[in-house]
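for ur thesis appendix - Venom acid phosphatase Acph-1. copy paste whatever u need, i formatted it the way the template wanted (i think)
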Amino acid sequence: MQSSLLLFVTIAFLQCFGSDAARSHPTLRAVTVIFRHGDRLPNDQKGGGLTNTGRLRSYRFGEKLRKKYGDFLGEFYEPASIFARSTEYARAQMSLQLTLASLYAPQKHQKWHKSLNWQPIPYSHAPLNNDVLLYPDGCPRFVQELKAAESSAEFKKLLEPFQETMKNLTRLTGSQVSSSKDMFLLYHKFDAMRYMNQTLEDWVYDYFPDGALLNGTYLEYKRLKFTDWLRKINGGALMRKVVDDMTAESKRAEADGRKLFLYGAHELNIVSVLQTLKLWKPHIPEYSSAIVLELREQSNLHFVKVLHYQGIPPVFIEKQISGCTTLCPLDKFIKLIEDQLPSYDEIICSNDGL
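the 3d part is after this line
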């Protein structure tokens, strides 16, 4: 009698609390990851590549994703389950390749070499002058809009307090520093040198890592979203695709869905996506930092969960969209950011559009 009663209580407990647990952990349906490349070379303005530390950091990021999402992604690489894209910059392509290498190390029958624990995984990229998703500031239309924004009285007023700083930096560096972009590039040169433990001249610390160069970099972030159209294209175009992909996945049978959308990109992408999600707080995104958007399902309802991978330190932090819960219903998530998203008619980079 006692054993029967115990069995009844156990079943009732599992039915009650098991269903609550299921509700609190909706099924993962798709993951979108937008991440910054690893540590770059100091003079890598033309896209030369990564330091060895940067290579390792990118590889470790793939391991982090495997640890967090391995059960969902499955043991084996399945071509139909992943979409991978980077910018044309070498450092972004290399970071994506390294992340994929650790995320999808070959297992069992996929091993093709007895001592090489790697398998080739395809990815795509667009030319810099026609990559509206990940590098809009290379698009001819975007460049035109930026020039118009820079010429405005409103922007000139924001740049004016930096005139003396830019004059001093021009003298100290021997290179022309006359814009927010110049200050942005100089900041990241010094930052790359710092991460390589290279010696910085004493005067650098008057401007970096805090102070005028940091504020000039923040002004560059503002410049890239200075008008409504720039704001919608820079970050908004990428989030338009993310939203459309999540919507499409929500309508597919789970077995037919694409599980991972992986974008190897830059710190400007992290900034612009955070701004589009209305989660931006001024900071410089670290190497290999990422925005992760999970699509989850429970009882035919779909939700979005946003995480910010810090990169340094290597931890994930849950983010909450203003006006919603941490696990935000998909339709509400879209509604809350739709004013930041362009229509496809607005997404113009060159004659080829997207």
